[in-house]
Amino acid sequence: MKLFKTTYFILSAMVLTLVMPSCKKGFLDIVPDNLPTLDNAFVNRSEAEKYLFTCYSSLPDEANLNTNPGMNTGDEFWINPITAPFAQIGTLEPFNIAKGLQSKISPAMNYWDGSGGGKSLWLGIRNCNIFLENVDKPIDLQPFEKERWIAEAKFLKAYLHWYLFRMYGPIPIVDKNIAVDANVEEVRVSRQPVDSVVNYISNLLDEATAGGSGVGLPDKIVNLSTELGRITKPAALAIKARLLVTAASPLFNGNPDFNSLKNKDGQALFNPTYDAKKWQRAADACKAAIDAAEAQGVALYKFSPSSLQTADNATKIEMSIRNAVCEKWNKELLFNSIVGSTRNIQMNACPNLFLAPKFDNGLSAQLAPTLKMAEMFYTKNGVPINEDRTWDYDNRYNLKTVTALDSAMVKDYLTVGLHFEREPRFYADVMFDGAKMYMQSNQKPAIPIYAKRNAISGKKQNIIYSISGYYTKKLINMNLVVGDNGGVTTENYPWPVMRLADLYLLYAEALNETGDLATPLIYLNKIRERAGLPTVETSWTNFSTNPGKYTNKDGLREIIQRERTIELAFEGSRFWDLRRWKQAANVLNAPIYGWNVDVEGGATTSIADLNKNAQEYNTRVLLFNQTFVSPRDYFWPIRENNLQVNQRLVQNLGW
């Protein structure tokens, strides 16, 4: 019987033909040959291992701005809308989502079918199922290897389901591939309720992490030369923690907004009843992941200069923050994207840092943080700028002169009060006109950032530049170098899908929701200490207009969420957090602002000359009036054609 073809995933394989994306050096380099039968694909250990790496290659490329759904799809970044098709940043598919231009006819970043910047994750799930169904065939595969490979494939299958769940909400569960001779009705699968999907993924992760030390997934990667990036138990447990915190969050836990989302047979896909036990389940999962990670030496990263580096205390703190993301395989990392390269991110985050004739070097600065994000960071006292009773919030847009005490900025430069007396993460994460940039190749003095038009780092033409006047320092590895010929060398790092600070914050959030107000402070303060800040208790008691905020659940929730937004800024977390917290409808219905980057600065390094137009440059400019339609925009649309092919599928609300 001819297999009924669906356009939302491929369900069977009569001929195994695998098309692999290009990868950097590593275990993903080995790909299967085009083989005529599945038997040949599993004829021996070597061929089976190639197929396992095919399953790994199904993971989304989160190091790529064009394919990471959490990056420039929200309000953290803004880019010049006339950039395409000239931009080095690539396609504008993600940015179209930020502008409210998502479509059910041809969805942007379509990970259901594999189009618009996405790839079909259902195909990846199918490959995992094929592997699990055939891994018993190689006679030369050692039992301990088979045990590990099965656990890896189960994790990958769970992760791909999780990725789809986070994007689309309730999804079909594909635990086994449908047989080639299946009838039409068997192929037409339905979406499953949220709780069923979460339990399925959680149980699959439990299977992947089962057993003690030395059983199944390794506790840590021992063979660093060939296996970095493969899944460990702490990584799998951390993803389970993220899954369960998401499931306990307001978007999924007792959300009445989706009461009408039902299958064609009337089956409800959202449970409208809030369940407090989900937070305890999430907290337990977080603690299990933390214990497993810390037992293997995972810890918050702290920068330690080598004998060739010189750094004062402020620089050490800044590099502890930056390198927690940018130092490859550092000890804080739990799970990294091994598909793709971060060069594109670095090139688009970094402004030109060098004098002519090195202007045209490909450093585009298009990935521009918004003014909203610049205001999100704390003051130096560790509280929000509108809460600090010692900080001049009302005059934050007025000009001030940089003094020798303001070590993160160029002395005698004129810039707005917003940039003064801010926390270390502000200066580590963003750059602006008059800021400084520490790089390994140019430690003394730190490189100045002059961002007015035609200045070293500023706008020089009308297409590729920072539209907001801010630059994403956090994502630039300190070993980026521009050669004498203008060519740029970047040090690639694996994109941090999850690091320990993220896990600490998830644990603090879950505990607070269970009514434990003490333990979250321990984990918040670990992160704040690394960031050079006082404890929550000290900061709010001594500097906040609401000193008792951390002593009640609602107040501490707000603190945890703000801490999460700051600590994980520009890492693709905020997009998802705003959704699971059900805050996107408020936060993303707000204007996007930047500075007046068209103001002339000239090709000069004279501070006096650069200060001449400071007042005009430091004028707020409206970049876009962002809109978010609720409940529609909380989830991706399923491509409309899929609903015609499979009439059991129902569309997400509003689409």
Automatic annotation (TrEMBL):
Location in or out of the cell: Cell outer membrane
Print the keywords alphabetically.
Cell outer membrane, Membrane, Signal
Chief subcellular site?
membrane
State the source organism's domain of life: Bacteria
Leader sequence range is 1-24
Report the residue ranges that make up the RagB/SusD domain in this protein.
357-655
In what residue span(s) does the SusD-like N-terminal domain sit? 120-243
| Stored Pfam families | SusD-like_3, SusD_RagB
Recorded GO cellular component terms are: cell outer membrane
SUPFAM superfamilies to which the protein is assigned, alphabetical = TPR-like
What InterPro entries does the record point to?
SusD-like_N, SusD_RagB_dom, TPR-like_helical_dom_sf
Q: Into which family does the record put it?
A: Belongs to the SusD family.
For this entry, the protein name equals Starch-binding associating with outer membrane
Q: Which organism is it from?
A: Pedobacter nyackensis
